[in-house]
Amino acid sequence: MEESIKEYLEERKSVIDNYLNIALEKIREDSPLYAAINYSLMAGGKRLRPIMLIATYESNFEDYEVVLPFAASVEMIHTYSLIHDDLPILDNSDYRRGKPTCHKIYGSDMALLAGDALISLAFEIISSRKLLEHFEAKFLLRIVHDFAELSGAKGLVGGQVMDMVTMDMDEIDENLILYIEKRKTASLFILSVRVGAILSGVSEDELANLTKFAENFGISYQIQDDILDETSTVEELGKDVHQDRKNKKATFVSLYGLDRSKVLAKEYIEKANSYLIAYSGKYKLLENIAKFTLERIK
Question: Which of 9, 159, 186, 242 is the most exposed place for a label (fewest CB within 10 A)?
């Protein structure tokens, strides 16, 4: 399973990277922001969020190329959030994806605007009339709404805000940490899986179960990140480490320690996959990707 999933991830990552390169061509000549946007968007990254969108759709239909605009747009939202998160006014990070962060190369002003431009570009792509050739308007409208909600104050941004205001807080508990992780990290995984499911035309019950899968997977993935922040190196991880400890963030590692956090990461993967049992292996691809991520913390 491990080798086949690794190959799948690498193959889909390559397809997504190719699409992102094409998508950026439209701004190459038009904007001095191109260099900063291209630097951050094409710096590497696992592309796990867009891959999970593709995997959800691919579990229902074979022609996954038609959902690449949505997959690329999720990655643009994710990259914008990393650019902004790394800024001196937030986490003040020096490295991301194995390279100096965007503001270290282009300055905080250009980095801020590059992130802003990526948000707009994502919405420009997912609202294109060309997509009506493949999908019903009601699905596309719902997806635009999900993009806005899950990347905004109710989702990603809301989690980042709480992540920031709880720094150095004396009293933290599991409910507070879950509030942060469901929004800061799980939101974009939820978005990815929901978009793949909506475009597949699944039932509302199936969509609800896939949403719960993605939420629990996202919580596990953030716990894994928190473990790696404590145990890994800049060279291994490609970004600054010990940031959570430095910024005194509310994480399961700070609350329970490494050993308990590793157990929780596994438990949340098992909980996530339990929501897919009813579909008789239809979403085996998602299940295997989820299990594969645990290799990061072994």
Answer: 242
The pLDDT tens digits of the residues spanning 117-154 come to 999 999 999 999 999 999 999 999 999 999 999 999 99
Query: Would the CA dihedral through 65, 69, 74, 75 be positive or negative?
Result: positive
Q: How many structural domains is the chain composed of?
A: 1
Q: 61: which 2 tokens?
A: 């239909």
Q: Report how far residue 84's alpha carbon sits from residue 159's, in angstroms, rounded to the nearest whole number.
A: 14
C-beta of residue 38 within 8 angstroms of C-beta of residue 59: no
Domain that holds residue 155: 2-297
Helix, strand or coil, per DSSP, at residue 95: strand
Helix, strand, or coil here: 99? strand
List all residues 6 or more positions away from 58 whose beta carbon is below 8 Å from its beta carbon: 64, 196, 285
* pLDDT averaged over every residue in the chain: 94
